[in-house]
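BUG: 3D viewer hangs when loading the predicted structure for this chain

Environment: internal workstation, default settings.
Expected: structure renders.
Actual: progress bar stalls at 90%.

Input used:
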Amino acid sequence: MSGKKKAAALFRVWHGVRELIEQAEQLGDSELVHFLAVTQLLIEERATTLTSGVAAFEHVDTSLPN
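Structure tokens produced before the viewer hung:
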């Protein structure tokens, strides 16, 4: 699968996770909302890496904690 197709598939998955977040919010399950939000961020990171050609955090000094 090409990078463009992978990015498109990740975009669809991202929207599915967004819908799950909305449902978890309606249920009042804050722990599930948090878990899904983290998942959504990971999907965004992967899609960005696929489309930008630059690995996430490649130019950031990650050797020290904030």
